[in-house]
Recover the amino acids of this structure.
């Protein structure tokens, strides 16, 4: 980690989220801890149902309070977020922590112009006269690379392409000058050339504002390109974390290794018929209502190296000789 | 393989959709979306042709036109040497048995009120195959086993299955009529990474076991590269580049393909840091009003004089050092053979249009 003044802007410790369901308690996030440093990007990687999005929504108080049980701690800038009421959270969201979600088509209000939505976001965080807010909205659109920003203020979301809508979402997220930005599958719905534009934009803005970014995704390629630190989630737990290099070059956990092996690459020069089959992990992630005893990955694990795997939950432990790299497995791969 | 006629051939294929204007009071004003706008393409027996492009480029429409799920507005589709437009309804139906489609969304493409057994058995009923209850039941069980489903689950409904399992149901249904040609239309787009790998490996195995010919339609270039023998790149209704997968993807000759390849994130931080990503400006133009001349010119980093005036056609490219300019022709070297059939529609390789 680079030496920034002061350390992390957001510290999450032992975050747990469970939902009451008719079938029983669904334990979706089971003890998650991480730090977000200013100007750095933490990538949280996982497949559907791994708890990666729920963990972020919990921080922001965006889960339905009547069914979600949240415990643990999340300290943002010295301020505990867990257990706050709606009004207190509203002050944090946007101004402290901004969000960009996957689908810009559904996160924007279809019947309001882009300008109106931006002005609302701006005035929610700071009292300013309408015309000042409007000028600032125009600046924000220009900052996120929207051509002809003044006339775009009058546009409705459906008049914009997917990439442009996602730029507007980013502009809205930046309106409150957040110190932490949570991007939840923010480029998943976009084409790769548009994704490249948005990634470029976000990395530039992050550098300019020294924003701490939590990038939630299933796409290991994107992670390799933008993350400083990576956390891999499975069944609501962190199974491995480390610097982006440690994770991709020296993965330890069988799940991480499986994910990397399952990802096709462009730059293997062999023709398709001479390539190896992709690595597959049989089966599915466990049901959060009936988490298995022992390691949650045990039922799908190709290694099962230790007698304890079935009965004991492997703790998240440091990988020998690799500072900052931790994995929750009893297995030590060869050559590591 | 050379010399054998292709299984599927499209010539001068156009698929245009008339669209009503979105403006109130002007509903009668129509514009035409040129989803597929002049495509020549063939698929060889036993190969996988990858069709890659971004949303709205017309790749799914092209795939559906090749199996006549959509009627072309102009041009022909030949299947096994027969022009499908000349066939009677009954002849077309028996030809349909030889082709199938695997759709993207296993949540939307299965009937929620039907058991998966009934869904898989539907093509059998339509084509009158494996008649008799017991025989049909046995065949459905066999198909389920082939795609890795438990035949005892034939009485279950789609909602009882995961996304990957539902896609297996869709694959079993596609295989029921024993097709020769299968259009896989974004078959892995809505699946998790580990499940994508399962489905891709399954498709590869099925092709080997049953000698299938695939059109693999996807926006995911890495997935296409993993399974396709040849790759066609589509932009705004046209094929802009086509050839053997290693030459098209590893040595792209069209500026759009180049940008596309450079934008695919690699799961390696080392490669990502070293990469020079080409970030295209602007958005894809509307397929209702494609730009004059080359359709890619409005976003092309290499645009030059002839681009707005001449519509480029596919022309042979590649070889040892194609981008630099034409050196001596490679002769009979292996490289020249490998590059054979590599074509790009770009004036950089000589103004032809």
């Amino acid at each position: 980690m680079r030496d920034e003044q002061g350390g992390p802007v957001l510290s999450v410790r032992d975050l747990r989220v469970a939902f009451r369901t008719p079938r029983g308690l669904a334990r979706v996030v089971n003890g998650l801890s991480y730090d977000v440093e200013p100007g750095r990007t933490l990538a949280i990687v996982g497949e559907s149902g791994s708890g990666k999005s729920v963990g972020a929504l919990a921080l922001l108080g965006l889960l339905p309070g009547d069914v979600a049980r949240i415990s643990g701690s999340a300290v943002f800038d010295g301020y505990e977020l867990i257990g706050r009421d709606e009004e207190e959270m509203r002050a944090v969201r946007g101004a402290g922590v901004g969000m960009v979600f996957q689908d810009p088509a559904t996160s924007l209000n279809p019947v309001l112009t882009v300008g109106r939505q931006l002005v609302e976001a701006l005035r929610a965080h700071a009292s300013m006269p309408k015309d000042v807010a409007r000028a600032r909205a125009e600046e924000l659109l220009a900052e996120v690379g929207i051509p002809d920003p003044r006339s775009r203020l009058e546009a409705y979301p459906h008049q914009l392409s997917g990439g442009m809508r996602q730029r507007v979402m980013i502009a809205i997220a930046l309106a409150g000058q957040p110190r932490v930005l949570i991007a939840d599958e923010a480029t998943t719905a976009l084409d790769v050339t548009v994704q490249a534009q948005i990634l470029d934009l976000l990395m530039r803005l992050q550098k300019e504002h020294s924003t701490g970014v939590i990038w939630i995704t299933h796409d290991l390629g994107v992670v390799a390109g933008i993350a400083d630190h990576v956390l891999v989630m499975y069944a609501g737990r962190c199974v491995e974390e480390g610097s982006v290099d440690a994770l991709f070059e020296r993965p330890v956990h069988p799940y991480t290794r499986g994910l990397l092996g399952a990802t096709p690459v462009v730059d293997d020069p062999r023709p398709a018929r001479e390539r190896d089959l992709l690595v597959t992990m049989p089966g599915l992630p466990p049901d959060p209502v009936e988490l298995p005893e022992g390691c949650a990955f045990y039922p799908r694990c190709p290694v099962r190296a230790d007698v304890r795997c079935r009965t004991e939950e492997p703790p998240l432990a440091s990988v020998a000789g690799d500072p900052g790299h931790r994995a929750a497995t009893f297995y030590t791969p060869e050559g590591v | 393989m050379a010399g054998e006629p292709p299984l599927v051939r499209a010539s001068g294929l156009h698929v245009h959709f008339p669209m009503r204007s979105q403006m109130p009071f002007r509903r009668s004003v129509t514009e035409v979306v040129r989803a597929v706008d002049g495509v020549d393409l063939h698929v060889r027996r036993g190969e996988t042709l990858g069709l890659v492009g971004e949303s709205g480029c017309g790749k799914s429409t092209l795939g559906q036109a090749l199996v006549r799920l959509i009627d072309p507005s102009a041009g022909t589709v030949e299947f096994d040497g027969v022009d499908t437009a000349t066939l009677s309804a009954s002849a077309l139906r028996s030809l349909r048995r030889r082709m199938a489609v695997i759709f993207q969304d296993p949540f939307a493409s299965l009937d929620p009120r039907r058991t998966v057994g009934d869904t898989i058995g539907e093509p059998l009923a339509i084509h009158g195959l494996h008649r008799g209850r017991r025989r049909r039941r046995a065949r459905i069980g066999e198909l389920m086993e082939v795609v890795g489903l438990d035949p005892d689950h034939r009485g279950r409904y789609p909602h009882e299955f995961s996304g990957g399992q539902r896609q297996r149901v869709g694959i079993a249904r596609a295989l029921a009529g024993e097709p020769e040609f299968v259009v896989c239309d974004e078959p892995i787009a809505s699946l998790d990474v580990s499940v994508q790998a399962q489905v891709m490996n399954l498709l590869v195995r099925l092709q080997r076991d049953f000698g299938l010919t695939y059109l693999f339609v996807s926006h995911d270039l890495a997935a296409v590269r993993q399974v396709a023998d040849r790759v066609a790149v589509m932009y705004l209704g046209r094929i802009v580049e086509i050839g053997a997968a290693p030459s098209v993807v590893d040595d792209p000759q069209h500026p759009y393909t180049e940008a596309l390849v450079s934008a695919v994130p690699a799961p390696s931080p080392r490669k990502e840091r070293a990469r020079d990503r080409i970030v295209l400006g602007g958005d894809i133009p509307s397929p209702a009003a494609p730009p004059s001349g080359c359709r890619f010119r409005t976003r092309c980093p290499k645009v030059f004089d002839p681009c707005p005036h001449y519509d480029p056609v596919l022309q042979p490219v590649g070889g040892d050092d194609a981008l630099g300019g034409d050196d001596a022709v490679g002769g009979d070297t292996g490289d020249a053979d490998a590059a054979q059939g590599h074509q790009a529609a770009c004036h950089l390789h000589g103004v032809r249009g």
About this structure: The longest strand of chain A covers residues 24-36. The longest helix of chain A spans residues 192-209. Residues 104 and 165 of chain A are 6 Å apart (CA to CA).
